[in-house]
């Protein structure tokens, strides 16, 4: 029996407090030793921060898959998913980036401290560092803004960004930040910057491009003439290169809109980091989502054998017995009212109100959407059937849960292969989980190691009489998109009895296409 060698994590508050320790525990207990030898950007210093970043990069794909599954099951909303997801930590930013639910409201609190500061730069930083996540948020915000601005603008505009950051960095080294900057103007600066990120979150068009150029110019004006000290302000105003571009109307005239995934994620993360003001104490709200995250984080500290690669684990098969109970609710079944006038759908909406709201958000409908509107779309009507069945029927929920075994094996195999530098991946890259579900090799490895069989005892009879259970079983297993999910049916063979061979049972194993992959006859 596995034992837990640390104090139990019993609340999301404990999850937040101990989150920094999760990546290291994950790598040490659940990652095959050779997989830990990951290449990293040589520009990063080879110190504890580099190690922490490596651990975070290895931990984040698995954490994010858990968060993704919670969203797919409608336990969390899109906003909660954004706040709970962990950055890949695979970029060139020289610090560990943590999920936003740990950093929410920290920037606004840090600004309040800065505006009230009447002491030295060191005293201000010590006040910020009393909350470790506030210090993380400040560093994350500072370096991310620099990275974003340098990716958006070029020419004289980029020279201005580099000059501003050079002056601020020098003042930090000299301990004169409070003299160099007018900290009371920070709210105005961040207001201008969030106006810019708000535009960049949308798809590019000519009007938005003009708006973004204007927003950057307004940010330039506020930083130069309000945030910087009078001496630096004068130097920047008389800087010939900048003055010429400004007079000719070229300064910030062209914005390089974020197009790649990393740039878009950077914009989104920065916008949330600066705009989310409420506390993360209630994230996630759903109790089942909280329970799963607490269970997972507890498991990271269990005493367990050393991890082995997927290719070396023992293959295993899972059987789920099934006879004739309802597989998926039909529309008529979950709309049927009992003697009290309560339908199954109405009941589930009332006991899972947040999950219903999250479901409507996932399929793109408003909270006030009614049943009749959902029925207008066949895909939405099918999603509704699954939503009700996952909460009201055991088999549907069990099949979905079992498929997480295969998904986990695919992800683990994919990351192991990339860390071993196979499939032509460059040695300078850090493994990420993007595309793991499309990797043929990872799918094949998972199929070798995991097989799932639903043993439907009268499936043949149900199929012959065209019972809804037979069609629903096929639909449920097809939704799992797993070729190694099989239906085991036990069928009474009348021909054997007529041939006076006694009572015969024909056992067939079918794949999702209905083809027999194995059979046996018992006399």
TrEMBL record:
Domain Callose synthase helical: start-end pairs: 99-276
Residues in Glycosyl transferase domain copies: 283-471
GO cellular component terms, A-Z: 1,3-beta-D-glucan synthase complex; plasma membrane
Domain of life: Eukaryota
GO molecular function, one term: 1,3-beta-D-glucan synthase activity
Pfam family, one: CALS1
InterPro entries xrefs: CALS1_helical, Glyco_trans_48_dom
GO biological process, one term: (1->3)-beta-D-glucan biosynthetic process
The protein's name in its UniProt record: Uncharacterized protein
Species of the source: Cannabis sativa (Hemp)
Taxonomic placement: Eukaryota, Viridiplantae, Streptophyta, Embryophyta, Tracheophyta
